[in-house]
Amino acid sequence: MKTTIDWPRRFSELQVFSRQERVGTLVHESQYVFGYSESAPRPCSLTMPVRIESYVRGALHPVFEMNLPEGFLRRYISERLVRYTKVNDMLFLALQGDRGIGHLNYRSGLDFGQADTVSMDDLLTTRRGEGLFTYLLDRYGLTHTLSGMQPKLLVQTDRTTLSYPNCIVKTEDAEFPGLVTNEYLCMSLARECGLAVPDHYLSSGRDLFIIDRFDVFQNQKLGFEDFCSLMGLPGEDRYSRSYETAAKVLNIYRLPQPDFKSFFRQIVFSCAIGNGDAHLKNFGLLYDPTSTEIRPRLSPVYDLTCTLAYEHLDKQLALTLNGRRDFPNKTGLMAFGRALGIRNPGAVVDEVVTLIRDGLKHHDLADEVPEVIKIIDRQAGYTGSESASGVRVPARQRSKRKKYR
C-alpha cells in the first residue's frame, strides 16, 4: 500500500462499475443520487433495474451500503483518516474500490497500488497472536471495506492468481474469547451436514480464522447481495424481521426448489448449534451479473457460531420464527418447513441433528473446546426433540443486546 495519499476534503461523487464496465454515477450532496449511464450494460442490483430516472434516497442505497464496515474496522479507518478527509459512507465506498464482495467496483481517483501478497503458510503457522493481525491491519486496513462487527480483513495470499484479495481473515477480542475456534468448529460441522461451505482454515495458534471468498468464479466476481439489500433494508434493520419474511426472498427471486431445501437446512442447523445471530445480512444470493437471464441462487453459508457459548449475549434467535424468538424444537421447525413446502421436514431435522452430534464425537477440536461442544450437543438434542423443555427466556430477562456480527 502506498504510504502517502493525496486525500480530497470529501468524496461527493463516485463512478460505479460492474466488473470492468461502468454502470453509473453515485453522487452525495443533501441526498444520495444514483443514475445509470446511457450505455449501462446491466443493473447494479437485483432491486434496481436500469432506467432513465435516477434512484434518490436520504440514506445510502442498500446495495451500496451492504459492504460498509462496522464495529472494529469502521473505528480503525475513522481514527486513521479523520484528520485527512471527511469520514462518511462515500469514503468507505472509495476505499472499497474493486476489492469488495460482489460485482460492484467504485472509482474515485484513489490509487493504493498493488498490495503485496501474504504467505498462506505464515497465516496458518505463525504464532504471533495479536501481533500478526496488527501487521495485517497496517497492510490492508485502509485498502478495502468489509461488513461486520468482528475484527476481520480481506487479504491477498500467495495461493491465488487474482489481482485482489482472495480470503477473509478474522481474529477475536477479549469480549468473545475463542470466537475463531468456535466459528471454525461450526463451519466444519456445517460441511458435514451437507451445507455449501467455502474452504476455511484455523491457524495453529488458534487466533486466526481464514475463509476463502465465495463470490469469485473463473477469476470473475459474481453478483452477491445479502437479504437486507434484497429487501431494501439498511443493515441496522438486520434483526427486525422474521425467518418467514426472509424466506419470501426465495420466492421473489424465483429460486429453484433445492435452494428452499438448503435454506430450511441452514435454519435447522443454526438452531441446532445455538446460533442466535443468523440475521438478514448472514444470508445472501449469488448470480452472474452478465447473464441475459439472471438466475440467483442461495450463497454458501458464512458467519456461523454458537452464540449460546457467551453468557453475556441473549439466548434468543436473531429473527422471529413462528412468531417467537425462542429457539424452536423439532415441532416448531417442522411447522416452518411445511410452510416452505419442504417434504418430510422432520426427517431433515433428524438428519441434521444426528450429523452434528456424530461430528462432535470425532472432531479435531473435541479436547480444546469441550464447553462449546457440550453446549452444541445439548442444543442439538433439544432441537431434535418434541418436548416442551429447552431454551426459554422470560420476557423480563431478555436482553436487547445485539450480537457481534
Automatic annotation (TrEMBL):
<dbReference type="Pfam" id="PF07804">
    <property type="entry name" value="HipA_C"/>
</dbReference>
<feature type="domain" description="HipA N-terminal subdomain 1">
    <location>
        <begin position="14"/>
        <end position="106"/>
    </location>
</feature>
<keyword id="KW-0808">Transferase</keyword>
<dbReference type="Pfam" id="PF13657">
    <property type="entry name" value="Couple_hipA"/>
</dbReference>
<protein>
    <submittedName>
        <fullName>HipA family protein</fullName>
    </submittedName>
</protein>
<feature type="region of interest" description="Disordered">
    <location>
        <begin position="385"/>
        <end position="405"/>
    </location>
</feature>
<comment type="similarity">
    <text>Belongs to the HipA Ser/Thr kinase family.</text>
</comment>
<dbReference type="InterPro" id="IPR052028">
    <property type="entry name" value="HipA_Ser/Thr_kinase"/>
</dbReference>
<feature type="domain" description="HipA-like C-terminal">
    <location>
        <begin position="146"/>
        <end position="353"/>
    </location>
</feature>
<dbReference type="GO" id="GO:0004674">
    <property type="term" value="F:protein serine/threonine kinase activity"/>
</dbReference>
<dbReference type="InterPro" id="IPR017508">
    <property type="entry name" value="HipA_N1"/>
</dbReference>
<dbReference type="GO" id="GO:0005829">
    <property type="term" value="C:cytosol"/>
</dbReference>
<keyword id="KW-0418">Kinase</keyword>
<dbReference type="InterPro" id="IPR012893">
    <property type="entry name" value="HipA-like_C"/>
</dbReference>
<feature type="compositionally biased region" description="Basic residues">
    <location>
        <begin position="395"/>
        <end position="405"/>
    </location>
</feature>
